[in-house]
Write a structure and sequence with these properties.
The protein has 15 helices and twelve strands. The chain is an alpha/beta fold. The protein folds into two domains: about 5-165 and about 345-360, Glycogen Phosphorylase B (Rossmann fold); about 180-340, 3-Layer(aba) Sandwich (Rossmann fold).
Length: about 375
């Protein structure tokens, strides 16, 4: 047991946030707590309505808080920036990198969103503070680790702590496939998700009869929902966001799960949480050759990869025409991959080793 080591999870969000990133922090904290660590949370947005860059104005109070812990797990750039500006304190700051925020802002600008100089300057300032003064760096993917190394951070200061999956919640269902294949996308509808590529493939579909399903529309994405309905008519199933239990049920009813992302500076270093969830269900996946998920699919043969957006429909056609036995084999290999690499128990165990090493403790399994 490691009850003597105290960890503070610092989040830029509010305590009622239910994003995938907050889920990551809570899952890591839950796993470490089960292994004997004391884990607490500090949600920055619960305590101030001001910009996150203004939090250092409270640096004296925050420093007192941080001094009670051995590790500050800073979730994302604003959290790492705020923590580092409150130094000196005894705790070590672990910067859990969400991605490349500067690239995200530049992408928003290219998409026509009004992004003035202030958000860009803010992102640069926060990134400099986060990168320059953190003690250790956590990356969700190999490409993100390599990008961090290219910015001058030594490899020994970077560890890969992946996005995981709860295997008891996302559990494999019966190996049954529908005669009319059900092809499903579940997630958000930002442009980099490239859902339009799957819509285009569905619109041009000339193969066997299939059912396309799109899950996850929010109230803010009504326009996207309307556009897809206009493109594909009543033959497509469009579903709003739902509870996790309902989502798992719907995904289990599917035959092929698709992650159609396009290559960009943002997506190349990211690792979509949905990948681990999809393969944990024992379902074959179709992914684009954009990020590290393509490497896993190729290595473990748990689905198929398409290399250009225009090839999505062709590769999907090949999967649809596969036998139930072939799809079952892909799904089972995916489940084994989830159990080996992406289950939270293994991920937490790796993180425990890192924390103990950082605090000068010996690891005992």
């Amino acid at each position: 047991m490691n009850c003597s080591i105290k960890i503070l999870f610092l989040s830029r969000n509010a305590s009622d946030d239910n994003s995938a990133y907050t889920h990551r922090l809570k899952s890591l904290a839950r796993g470490l707590t089960d292994r004997g660590f004391r884990c607490d949370f500090f949600y920055m947005s619960d305590f101030t309505d001001t910009s996150h860059t203004m939090l250092p104005l409270y640096r004296s109070r925050l420093r007192q808080l941080f001094n009670r812990y051995h590790i500050i797990h800073a979730g994302g750039t604003p959290a790492a920036f705020a923590a580092n500006l409150c130094k000196p304190f005894q705790a070590r700051v672990f910067y859990d990198m969400h991605g490349d925020r500067i690239a995200e802002i530049q992408t928003e600008s290219r998409l026509g969103k009004e992004v003035g100089p202030l958000p860009v300057l803010k992102a640069f300032t926060q990134e400099l503070g986060a990168m320059g003064f953190s003690n250790h760096f956590l990356a969700v993917s190999g490409p993100l680790k390599h990008m961090t190394m290219s910015r001058g951070i030594k490899e020994e200061r970077i560890s890969i702590i992946r996005n995981g999956v709860n295997l008891s919640v996302f559990n494999a269902g019966p190996d049954r496939f529908n005669r009319v294949r059900k092809i499903t996308y579940a997630g958000q509808f930002q442009s980099y998700q490239a859902v339009n590529d799957l819509v285009a493939a569905a619109r041009m579909w000339k193969g066997p009869s299939v059912v396309f399903t799109f899950i996850g529309f929010s109230q803010e994405e009504t326009a996207a929902k309307t556009s897809i309905r206009k493109d594909l008519g009543n033959g497509v199933c469009l579903t709003d966001r739902m509870s996790q239990a309902d989502l798992v049920k719907r995904l289990k009813e599917s035959d092929i799960l698709v992650i159609p992302r396009r290559s960009s500076r943002v997506t190349r270093i990211a690792f979509p949480t949905k990948f681990a969830e999809f393969i944990a269900l024992g379902k074959p996946v179709l992914v684009s050759d954009v990020d590290e998920t393509a490497d896993f699919v190729t290595r473990y043969q748990c689905g198929m990869v398409y290399h250009q957006p225009s090839a999505l429909g062709e590769v999907l056609m090949r999967m649809v025409k596969m036998s139930d036995m072939e799809l079952q084999a892909m799904g089972r290999r995916g489940r084994r991959l989830a159990e080996k690499v992406f289950n939270w128990d293994s991920i937490t165990l790796n993180y425990e080793r890192l924390i103990l090493q950082s605090c000068g403790h010996r690891f005992e399994n």
